[in-house]
Design goal:
The radius of gyration is 15 Å and the shape is globular. By secondary structure, the protein is of the alpha+beta class. It has a seven-stranded antiparallel sheet. The mean pLDDT is 93. The protein contains three helices and seven strands. α1 crosses α2.
Length: 152
C-alpha cells in the first residue's frame, strides 16, 4: 500500500510540561541527547553542524549529523540532516537535506508539540517508503521518550 504523503511526516504530541521545559529538552544538546539517545559534540547554534553518535540500542552504528536551521525561543526549532546518512548507496546533491521542525505552543495540559519531518521525495524511489516507515516509527518512539523526559 502506497504512503498517502511520501514527502512528509507529521506527529502531534500533547506534553504535560510547560513550553519553557519542552523548549529546554529540545534545544539543550545534552538534554536532547538524553531523551533522543544521541551523544552530540556541542550545542545547537543556527548555521552550525552538529555531529555525534547514536546511542539508541540497535542503532549504535549510525552517526548523527545535523545543521541547526532555526531557533525561535519557545516557538520553533528546526534542524536538517543529509539524506546520505541513511542511504549511503545513492549519491545526493551536497545541498540536499531533510528538515525536522519542532513547533511548540501552549495547550490546556502543557505544550502541544508538532514534529514535522520533510524532504523524503529526494530519496531514491526504491528506498523512500522504507525510510518513511522507519522514521515514522522512530518519531513514535521519540515522542514517548520526550514525554517521559519532561514529566520527570
Amino acid at each position: 500500500m502506497a504512503e498517502a504523503n511520501q514527502d512528509r511526516i507529521e506527529k502531534i504530541v500533547e506534553l504535560r510540561a510547560p513550553v519553557s521545559r519542552v523548549w529546554r529538552a529540545l534545544t539543550d544538546h545534552v538534554e536532547f541527547g538524553s531523551w533522543f539517545r544521541v551523544q552530540l559534540d556541542g550545542p545547537f547554534r543556527v548555521g552550525v553542524v552538529n555531529k555525534g553518535k547514536i546511542t539508541y540500542p540497535g542503532y549504535e552504528h549510525m552517526v548523527w549529523e545535523s545543521r541547526t536551521e532555526k531557533l525561535e525561543p519557545e516557538r520553533l526549532f528546526v534542524f536538517s540532516w543529509p539524506p546520505g546518512t541513511v542511504d549511503p548507496d545513492h549519491s545526493y546533491d551536497p545541498e540536499a537535506k531533510v528538515l525536522v521542525e519542532f513547533h511548540l505552543e501552549p495547550s490546556r495540559t502543557g505544550t502541544r508539540l508538532t514534529i514535522i519531518e520533510s524532504g523524503f521525495l529526494q530519496f531514491h524511489e526504491s528506498k523512500r517508503l522504507e525510510v518513511l516507515r522507519m522514521n515514522r516509527q522512530g518519531w513514535d518512539m521519540q515522542a514517548d521518550n520526550i514525554a517521559a523526559h519532561v514529566a520527570d
